[in-house]
Structures are given as structure tokens and as C-alpha cells.
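Appendix B: a complete holo record

For completeness, this appendix reproduces one full record from the ligand-bound portion of the collection. The bound molecule is pyridoxal-5'-phosphate. The inputs are the chain sequence and the ligand SMILES; the output is the full three-dimensional arrangement of the complex, encoded as C-alpha cells. No fields have been trimmed.
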Amino acid sequence: MSVAGNERGRMTSPSLDRSEALWKRAQRVIPGGVYGHQNAGAHGERHPKFLARGEGSRVWDVDGNEYVDWMCAYGPMVLGYRNSVVDRAVAEQMELGDTLSLPGEAMVEYAEALVAKTAGMDWAIFGKNGADVTSWAIDTARAQTGKSKVVKVRNAYHGARPWTIPVLPGVPPHHRDELIEVVWNDVEGLRSVFAEEGDAIACVILTPYDHQLHHAELPSEGWYRAVRSLCDEHDAVFVMDDVRAGFRFDLAGSHVYFNAAPDLVCYSKAIANGYALSAGLGVEALRPAAERIFFTGSFFFQSSAFAAASATLAEMERTDAVGTIHRIGQLLIDGLEAQAESFGEPLVSTGPAAMPSFHFGDDPEYARFKRWCDAATEQGAYLHPGHNWFVSAAHTEEDVDRTLEATERAFEELRSSG
Ligand SMILES: Cc1ncc(COP(=O)(O)O)c(C=O)c1O
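The structure of the chain with pyridoxal-5'-phosphate bound, as generated:
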């Protein structure tokens, strides 16, 4: 471990030399260096660009600097890095083989456990990434209804696929012809969309709450009731995209926590604690449509991922992981709010405790927030300036304390630099 500064955390700037050297090498052989969310080049110059390892709630960059990690690999790490129960289940499966020519027992066992656990769902299918199953859900809804239009919330992210990706280069415009965007919680807007186009709408796809990049908005009273009744009236399918929030609110599905009644549920990120797996679940009435969809991938049937997912579910239940996540997340939010107040900084917290979202109220371009996250990251708390953060069951009160030391120095820096 090489942490610059004293035992309570670093004060001096850590070296990022290896990170920067790797970045240069990457740029020569990988377009852009690193692509997608994990491109830390966009996060701030004091953020490391490559990590070497993780353990529990902590990660170490390739220069050996340690961080309390509030991104949890963008969600998957729900029990912490290198969880011994999950990793042992994977190791045992690997002794038997992993990607074979047919699925193994681990898939059926996990399907049984997940279907039994998920409120209102009768069957499950599996892919790898979140976009596999959100796109599968759209196909299933279209097969079921014989209609083609998809209603989603403006700026809501459902994956990097032509029908939904927010960045348009490379996507011919016709891919968006079938997309209708509405405003979160705008019941009247949704009603008028259905009044005009109900005959063509195959589905409404929503996240359990609106988790946009800097702001989160919870469902208003009546939003999910309206979604359900409009879908029923117009023979449309209600898809819950629980890819990001799943397993951080209720193991029976975030739709239970937020009081929604979807027809299809999409999971990925957290369900296998970092091993690659996504799941789509559905109500009985959609089983025939799901049977007609051609859905496959070379690695969809890897047994190790199912072993990891079964162990994750059991371990989360055994340890009340969701309770821990909410308790620690709230400590973090309360601590940051109190600290910001003492510095006179207008820190605004919008996300629920399990997935906090922050910004400064007087900083519409998020430039000061970015500087603050960069300074805190340099001091050992890995904070993302343009995405919600994630809390895991491996985070502790000590992690919150360590983070508050880092953010205190970041607030001091903001104060002295203006
Ligand atoms: C709500 C939501 N849906 C779908 C996806 C796509 O998941 P993946 O990146 O695994 O394809 C994401 C990814 O961040 C997401 O947050």
C-alpha cells in the first residue's frame, strides 16, 4: 500500500505516473484510449485512469494509491470487491468448466431462486449486459403486442443500443422513428401520448426512479398507477429497467420499494456481484412472446455467472445487505450535507441513500462540483463528477469517516481557490 501523507489519509498529491503512461499506450491502440462510462479522462485530471485491484469497499490504482470507491464498478459491486462467498462459488464452478456447449444446472437453480424472489414475475431469461435485456424487453413487448413504438423518459439511459443510446453518431435516424419521449412524473403528458398513439405503443420502459446524471427524482404519487392503467387500457407492456437500481432497494425488485407493477423486469449490474450476468423476468401472459424471441449470445450460458448470482442473492439475504447499504449511504449523505453547510457550500443531495446524487445548487455547468470531486479523489475518496454514486454492503462507517476527511480537504481547496 502506498498512500501519500499521514495515517488518517493523504495530504500530498499522489503520483499518477503509471496511470498516465498506460493512458498514452492505450490511446495508441484503443480509439479514445478508454471508451464509455469508464473513460476517466473525462472525470478530472486528478482521477486515476486505471485500477490494479479492489478489496471490499477499496480500490488501488496502478500507481498503488488507495481509494474508498463510491462507484462500485458503476453498480455491480454490491457486496464489495472479492467477496469470499461469491468468489468461492465461482471457483467451485470453474473446477467443473464454465462456458460449455449446453447450459448447466446452475442456470436452472438460479432461475428458480430469482423467479421465487422477484415479486409478480413468473419466469426468467438471461444475458450478460444490461442492454442485452432492455433490448430483449423491447423485442418481447413488440412480439406480444404486434405494435412497435416505445415510450421512454427523456434523457433516461437504457443502454448503448441504436434504439436508446443518447449519443447519435453511427445511428441512422430511422432507429429513433419508433421512440416517444415523455417527461418523468408528467401523468398528463403520458396520457396525451397514449391518446394520440396508443394504437402503436408496444411498451413503456421506465427506471424505478428517474436517476439522471446529476439529479434524481422519485416517482410522484399516482405516477405508477397512471402508467399501469394506461398500459392496460391500450394493451401495452410496462417494462421496469432495474439494471442500475436493482438489488439496492429490495431483493424482490425495486418495483416493490417504489410501488410499481411492471410486466417485465430487467436486471444486470449488481445481481452477480461483478460477474457478467443480466436477467429479464416476466409475467405469465408474456411467456408465449418470450418463447418466440430469438435471444442468444456466445457467453450467455456461462455457469460461473449463475453460481455467482445464486451466492450473491443468498449472501445479500443472509446479511441484510440492503439494510447496510441504506444505513451507510444515509451516513454519507448526512455527513456531506453537514460538512457542506459548515463551509457555506450549497451541496444538493437528490438521490436515495443507496445511490446518492449530488451537485452544487449554484453551479449549473457542474464545473465547481467536478473540481471538488477531483480534489476529494486525489485525497483518497473516489468520487464521480457526472453520475450517481453507488453504496455497497462492504462500505463501513470508517469508509464514511475517511471520505469526509477527503471531502473536507476538497472543500478547503474550493474555498481557497474560489
Ligand atoms: C438504467 C440502465 N439501463 C441499462 C443500462 C445498460 O447496461 P449495460 O451497460 O450493462 O449494457 C444501464 C447502464 O448503466 C443503466 O443504468
